[in-house]
Amino acid sequence: VSTELSQGCARGCDLCSEFNGCLRCSPKLFILLERNDIRQIGICLPSCPLGYFGLRNTDMNKCIKCKIENCESCFSRNFCTKCKEGLYLHKGRCYVTCPEGYSAANGTMECSSPAQCEMSEWGPWGPCSKKRKLCGFKKGNEDRTRQILQAPSGDVSLCPATTEVRRCTVQKSQCPEGKRKKKEEQGKQDNGNGNTNRKDTKDAKSGTKKRKSKQRGAVAPATSTSPAQ
């Protein structure tokens, strides 16, 4: 920096040199260094031009160039607020097209987030089920749904999910068809046991009848009586 100071500094400049222009701007103004061949010329501005952002310091406010590719205006060194013509802005960066899952909002060059979809409140959780059954298990899934009330540009594919699923645990209960099968199997077993019991009962009754018949057909032994004397 040249130390040769001139008396006639430009308006808003507190300190200047003939070789490097302004060296210190008045408070509230920003100093912008423009390259001219091998020299940097300082000028004072109320706000920074396109492609630069203002950084305020206690000693001097500076205009710093945006470091983002194809950025026309930025908020900080790495966050763009406006891209060059024909490019889309998304989360502080510039793109030829919006990233997957995003689209330009309302005809602007800013990619909208899926979060901008207007969604209804979640409905209640449904019953706990497994493989479309409501019984015969301990751990299953339950779900709930919501509706898309409004989507950016009418494209519902940009909106978040309308169904949510979570794991659930219930007290294991037997299905009605399982109970019927169990009853049928139990009935078959009872019938089988019943036939055996009936047969045993018949055999027992038959044996009793035979014993009674033998007792009826038995001849009592003859007893002799001696004549009375």
UniProtKB/TrEMBL annotation:
CDD domains tied to this protein: FU
Source organism, top-level taxon: Eukaryota
Predominant subcellular localization, coarse grouping: nucleus
Domain Spondin-like TSP1: 117-172
Record keywords: Disulfide bond, Glycoprotein, Heparin-binding, Nucleus, Repeat, Secreted, Sensory transduction, Signal, Wnt signaling pathway
Entry's Gene Ontology BP terms: positive regulation of canonical Wnt signaling pathway; regulation of macromolecule metabolic process; Wnt signaling pathway
Pfam families recorded: Furin-like_2 (PF15913), TSP1_spondin (PF19028)
Recorded GO CC terms: extracellular region; nucleus
Role, per record: Activator of the canonical Wnt signaling pathway by acting as a ligand for LGR4-6 receptors. Upon binding to LGR4-6 (LGR4, LGR5 or LGR6), LGR4-6 associate with phosphorylated LRP6 and frizzled receptors that are activated by extracellular Wnt receptors, triggering the canonical Wnt signaling pathway to increase expression of target genes. Also regulates the canonical Wnt/beta-catenin-dependent pathway and non-canonical Wnt signaling by acting as an inhibitor of ZNRF3, an important regulator of the Wnt signaling pathway. Acts as a ligand for frizzled FZD8 and LRP6.
PANTHER family linked: NEUROHYPOPHYSIAL HORMONES, N-TERMINAL DOMAIN CONTAINING PROTEIN, R-SPONDIN-1
Name of the protein: R-spondin-1
Organism of this sequence: Urocolius indicus (Red-faced mousebird)
Gene that this sequence comes from: Rspo1
